[in-house]
């Protein structure tokens, strides 16, 4: 299964950069891509930054293509649905901006261990402790979200196979309800596992 | 009660005093354990019985995942209700399904997660994680996504994530159920060879027979406690053979 932005161990300048610096850089570039009105020159520059990021991070263009494949259904969704209401150039420009942002974010997660991102997020949120925010809890929540995506995808795959084996076709109702039940059960099991590992 | 053969495990002796566990279900209140009293300091303790007999509830009592409705549970002198924070540092828990237990995206990160909040520096954690990976032939797997591991490797990671925190008691709830015979043997050998006291809930009677002592549960009650061979014989003749 191709998962968006899973860490790839390489020896590159991007891998060695502190997670906090990468996250701040990501926010700056995203603002530069998203805030100005879209132009083809601007989108072209964004694409160049993306390609440069994959090359400097020693991830390669094959990895870039894998990341595009991982979001292909999202691309289809953000192109097809707005086409009902908006002109084609506007839809394509918006979709291109979303894809550039996703691919930039993936550069950060591909070159940074999750624990480094969590540590950076926890450090950044520490001043908010006085307002009742628990940075450790938010960091753990992020880690669990990342970890849970492939688990839920695995459950969905098993359910799809089970349906095909029994009826030869897919039923949305018979897919969504058991997936929801199994996901909730997984959440319960994970809560038990966290408690067993001393997380309160 | 059998005497434990390893003095190092003494601080993990287990005592249940008139323990009853009830929980509500859609069909009404269910008694998961009914008036159980026992003491044990066996180094390796097998827990056997049919599905729904109370084995897993017993296991979950030992690190405070379940609390008794009545009675008290003590592990290594710690009460599992009032001393739960200290207890969870002493009692590691291995679940049947490692996917529920592995909470971090990569192998090394999940091992490191067990060491967070213990006053260790990042360097000390990395050193300890690297040592555990090397000891278990997983050195090349450090940055692999946990979900890409095989079932046997996932269960090995789940157990190592427990062991890296150096608990004095390991509780394993059907740790070999989802594994093939080869991986089940590897996990069983690992658990039975640990210096720590180990409680293993299992349907694998071969594994149960290798333990120092066994408990047999049926219908929420403790039927017998003693030599694994005798307990297994009674399980097969009185419970499994029951129409």
Question: How does this structure look, described?
Answer:
- In chain A, helix 2 (about 20-35) packs antiparallel against helix 6, helix 3 runs parallel beside helix 6 (about 90-110) and helix 8 (about 135-165) packs antiparallel against helix 9.
- The two termini of chain A are about 30 Å apart.
- Chain A folds into 2 domains: about 15-110, no CATH class; about 130-195.
- Chain A contains 9 helices and no strands.
- Chain A is globular, with a radius of gyration of 20 Å.
- By secondary structure, chain A is mainly alpha-helical.
- With about 240 residues, chain B is of the alpha/beta class.
- Chain B has a single domain, classed as P-loop containing nucleotide triphosphate hydrolases (Rossmann fold).
- Chain B has helices at about 55-60, 85-90, 100, 105-115, 120-135, 150-165, 180-190, 205-210, 230-240; strands at about 15-25, 30-40, 45-50, 70-75, 80, 90-95, 170-175, 195-200, 215-220, 220-225.
- In chain B, strand 4 and strand 5 (about 80) form a beta hairpin.
- In chain B, helix 4 (about 105-115) packs parallel to helix 6 (about 150-165).
- Chain B is globular and about 55 Å long.
- Chain B starts with 13 loop residues before the first strand and ends with a helix.
- The model of chain B is unreliable at about 1-10 (pLDDT under 50).
- The chains are: A mainly alpha (about 200), B alpha/beta (about 240).
- The interface between A and B is medium-sized, with 29 and 33 residues.
What order do the helices and strands come in, and which of them pair?
The complex is a heterodimer of chains A (200) and B (243).
Chain A: H1 13-16, H2 19-34, H3 40-56, H4 60-70, H5 72-80, H6 88-111, H7 114-125, H8 135-167, H9 172-196
Chain B: E1 14-25, E2 28-40, E3 44-49, H1 55-61, E4 70-75, E5 78-79, H2 84-90, E6 91-94, H3 98-101, H4 107-113, H5 122-135, H6 151-163, E7 169-173, H7 181-192, E8 197-201, H8 205-209, E9 213-218, E10 221-226, H9 228-240
Parallel strand pairs in B: 3-8, 3-9, 6-7, 7-8
Antiparallel strand pairs in B: 1-2, 1-4, 4-5, 9-10
Helix pairs in contact in B: 4-6
């Amino acid at each position: 299964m191709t998962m968006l932005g899973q860490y790839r161990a390489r020896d590159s300048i991007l891998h060695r950069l502190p997670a906090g610096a990468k996250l701040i850089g990501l926010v700056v570039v995203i603002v530069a891509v998203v805030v100005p009105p879209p132009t083809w020159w601007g989108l072209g520059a964004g694409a160049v930054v993306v390609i440069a990021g994959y090359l400097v991070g020693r991830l390669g263009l094959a990895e870039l293509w894998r990341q595009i494949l991982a979001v292909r259904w999202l691309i289809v969704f953000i192109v097809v649905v707005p086409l009902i209401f908006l002109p084609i150039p506007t839809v394509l420009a918006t979709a291109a901006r979303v894809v550039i942002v996703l691919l930039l974010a993936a550069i950060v997660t591909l070159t940074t261990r999750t624990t480094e991102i969590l540590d950076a997020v926890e450090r950044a949120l520490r001043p908010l402790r006085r307002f009742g925010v628990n940075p450790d809890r938010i960091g753990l929540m992020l880690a669990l979200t990342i970890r849970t995506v492939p688990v839920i995808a695995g459950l969905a795959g098993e359910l799809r196979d089970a349906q095909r084996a029994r009826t030869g076709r897919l039923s949305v109702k018979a897919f969504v309800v058991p997936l929801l039940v199994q996901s909730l059960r997984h959440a319960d099991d994970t809560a038990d596992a966290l408690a067993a590992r001393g997380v309160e | 009660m059998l005497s434990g053969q390893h003095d190092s495990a003494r601080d993990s002796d287990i005592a249940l005093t008139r323990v009853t566990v009830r929980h509500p279900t859609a069909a009404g209140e269910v008694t998961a354990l009914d008036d159980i009293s026992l003491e044990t300091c066996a180094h390796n303790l097998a827990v056997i019985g049919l599905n729904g007999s109370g084995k897993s509830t017993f296991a979950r009592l030992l690190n405070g995942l379940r609390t008794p409705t009545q009675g008290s549970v003590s592990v290594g002198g710690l009460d599992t209700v009032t001393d739960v924070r200290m207890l969870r540092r002493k009692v590691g828990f291995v679940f049947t399904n490692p996917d529920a237990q592995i909470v971090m995206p990569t192998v090394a990160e999940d091992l490191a997660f067990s060491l967070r909040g213990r006053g260790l520096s990042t360097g000390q954690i990395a050193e300890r994680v690297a040592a555990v990976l090397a000891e278990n032939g997983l050195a090349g797997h450090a940055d692999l996504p946990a979900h890409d591991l095989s079932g046997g490797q996932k269960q090995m990671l789940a157990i190592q994530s427990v062991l890296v925190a150096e608990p004095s008691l390991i509780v394993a709830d059907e740790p070999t159920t989802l594994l093939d015979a080869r991986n089940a043997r590897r996990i069983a050998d690992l658990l039975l060879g640990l210096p720590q006291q180990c409680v293993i809930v299992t349907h694998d009677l071969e594994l149960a027979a290798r333990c120092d002592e066994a408990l047999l549960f049926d219908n929420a009650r403790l039927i017998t406690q003693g030599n694994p061979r005798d307990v297994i014989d009674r399980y097969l003749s009185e419970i499994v053979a029951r129409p």
